[in-house]
Amino acid sequence: MTPAIHSKLAIPAGLNQVIFVLSILIVSGSLWLASHAATVWTMIAAAIVFSFVNNTIFALLHEAVHGALHPNRRINDTMGRLTACFFPTSFSIQQAFHLTHHRHNRTPDEQFDLIRPGDNKLLKYAQWYCILTGLYGLSPSIFCLLYAIWPGLFRLPGWARNDTGIGHQTSAAIYFDAVKKIPMWHVRAEVALAIFVQIALFQLLDLHFAAWLLCHACFVVNWSALQYADHAFSPLNPKDGAWNLKVNPLTRMLFLNYHYHLAHHQAPQVPWLHLPKLVPPGSEQPAFWRIYLCMWRGPQPIEKFEAGSHQ
């Protein structure tokens, strides 16, 4: 599909706004139910619902990052800042990080699934299983909070330089460099807004911390698993290094076609509603669970990957 055709694929602004409101109502209801559940099973069910619908909100945030949530830039960014509060994270930092990801995807700066000569294997395995267990899902919130308080911490040469092992292997150097251009008052205002929204949810819904923690734990595991399953062991190319993953229709709907990730990387300006049009009939669509289970085998030597025996 040519760029001229891409430009005719309109942003579903009205639909996005409806999904935005409904998703916030559902995640708020899930948090309330988890906090006031009569049984443990009800609490768990509410946490699972939260984990999926909060991913819907993240998918809206992802659209806003690409300017595809609403055609009006001010409305797009305002909705983006509000959706970021439910992660919680900073919209400006998320945007800087994600656009950096598009530029460096599957380059040596972003090959978490592959062990290259000279890599620190212990660090490689540690970061890999942080992704799989959901610990990686905590990093956006923690980073934003710490960066708002002490930005100099992330300019220390040990991890802020790409010629150091940690800075390069973890991608920290390119990501920390990306946020330098963001005005600090933007970051601090967005972090303050996210904190305000979370406190307001606690007060208005009479939330219990244990229930809130369970909901967010389920969410970060769900979110973190997808964040690399859509790239793991894919071609080493920034635009083609992703998968159009096969999932059930309900999951695809809740994630707003996020699993059509190869289509998204090939045409990042195309709104989520139109991504199925970019997936050629009969093209390769590996099952999410096949890639995800392969990931549990751990990072693979790049020589094995290049030989074609990684799956």
Structure description:
The protein has helices at residues 3-6, 13-36, 40-65, 73-84, 91-104, 121-133, 139-149, 157-160, 165-169, 172-178, 184-205, 209-229, 249-254, 261-266, 288-295, 302-306, and strands at 114-115, 300-301. It has 311 residues and is an all-alpha fold. It has one domain. It has a two-stranded parallel sheet with strand order 1-2. The longest helix has 26 residues, at 40-65. It is globular.
Briefly, what is this?
This protein is mainly α and 311 residues long. It has helices spanning 3-6, 13-36, 40-65, 73-84, 91-104, 121-133, 139-149, 157-160, 165-169, 172-178, 184-205, 209-229, 249-254, 261-266, 288-295, 302-306; strands at 114-115, 300-301.
Defining key terms:
mainly alpha, two-stranded parallel sheet
Number-wise, the strands total: 2
Tally of helical segments: 16
Low-confidence stretches: none
* Adjacency order of strands in the biggest sheet: 1-2
Radius of gyration: 19 Å
Distance between the termini: 30 Å
Shape: globular
Secondary-structure element pattern, one letter each: HHHHHEHHHHHHHHHHEH
Q: What amount of the residues lies in strands?
A: under 5%
Sheet having the most strands: 2 strands, parallel
